[in-house]
Write a structure and sequence with these properties.
155 residues, Collagenase (Catalytic Domain), four-stranded mixed beta sheet, 45% helix, zinc
Length: 155
């Protein structure tokens, strides 16, 4: 089971329950198992720009950043002291950047936001898109997940 914390306000039409269900589906389809917890934060461009500079050395905003929590000896995230859930990580999404991208691409803001949810969870599951082979694998799985959840997706 996957649980979430949600900080900030998602776009119209996106609920915490929808985010949790999509994150859980992504986690499962990416090979995850067990009880895990993910925090989602929706921020403005200023905060995202600061995080992007601090953690990636890039002086501009971005759409989504994922931060994996520390792992234990078994290479799985540490267990929360209060529960048996594993703390998978935090996903930070820039609301303004997602809105701009949605307009630019011709998607709804809700669909673009949900794509960022899937993308962020995949990063927490060690998927990346630095090299072409990794990109192909990650975006293929992302597309499969979005289609399985009936989220409109046009690359």
């Amino acid at each position: 089971m996957l649980t979430i914390d949600l900080f900030g306000r998602p776009p119209r039409g996106v609920t915490a329950d929808l985010i949790r269900k999509l994150a859980a589906a992504t986690f499962k389809q990416a090979g995850g198992f067990g009880n895990v917890h993910v925090s989602f934060s929706i921020v403005d461009d200023q905060i995202m720009k600061g995080l992007n500079l601090r953690h990636r050395g890039v002086k501009k905003t971005t759409d989504v950043l994922s931060f994996t929590y520390g792992t234990g000896e078994d290479n799985w995230p540490e267990t929360d002291n209060d529960t048996s859930r594993r703390l998978l990580g935090e996903i930070v999404i820039s609301g303004p950047q997602v809105s701009r991208q949605a307009k630019e691409i011709g998607r709804t803001i809700a669909d673009e936001f949900l794509i960022m949810v899937v993308h962020g969870v995949l990063h927490l599951m060690d998927y990346d898109h630095v090299m072409k082979r990794q990109e192909d694998e990650m975006f293929s799985l992302q597309h499969k997940i979005l289609m399985s959840q009936r989220i409109i997706f046009h690359p």
